[in-house]
Fold this protein.
Amino acid sequence: MKNFRIEHRKSEDYDVLDLEGELDAHTASQLEDELKELIAKNKYNIIVNFDDLDYIASAGLGVFMAYIEDVRSLGGDIKLTNMSKRVYNVFDLLGFPTLYDILEDEEDAIQKFINSDD
Amino acid sequence: MSSNSIYNFKVKASTEKLAEVRRFVANNASKHQYSKKDIEDVRLAVDEAFTNIIKHAYNYNENEQVEIELDINKDQICVSLFDKGKSFDSSTYRFPNVREQIREKKRGGMGVYLMHKLMDDVQYLRDSGINEIKMCKKKS
């Protein structure tokens, strides 16, 4: 039984990962594979949409920690959007809001990418 | 005298059991008068403790088992996880500096930090070769 899914789509010049379900130490490898694949294809402008993500454990946050430096050093970023209060709370407890762009929605994330290119 | 409800669950030490472990915690805790937030905090703390046992105590050996005991009364939820693996030395543990870890492309150490943040009390006990992580959260 899979309680986690990722859909990959393009939005303008950006690669969006739509997360759904529960992200924990069991399902984190799926997210890791998806991010690795994007980086291998030189896709560095990544938006991760948490709208349908119901749950996250630290293993999920660990994936973002492991790849953000690579993506940023190549001129890109991983921007996080549409978090529920519950999911945001876990990021907040670990101090992520000062280290990552956590935004309201996809539009804000795209705007942030555009502004940082100026 | 307060009456306690005890719930036990013996489960294979595998990450594929995480969702089941979370359900065990949430389903039983919700039989009592606790807020959604309290139950979610305990559920996440148990997830992190169970994950750490699989990784560090048992080094991903799925032949091993973990016993979980939930002990709930009107004032607090306590949960113990028992394993027979390598014990955790809390004296050498340092809370992670996430900024530094990102720079070094490291992860880990965050589960223990979350457990302490989410619960009011976390204790590591060892008796006759059995490790126990005991965590309690008072009703908010």
Notes: The mean pLDDT of chain A is 95.
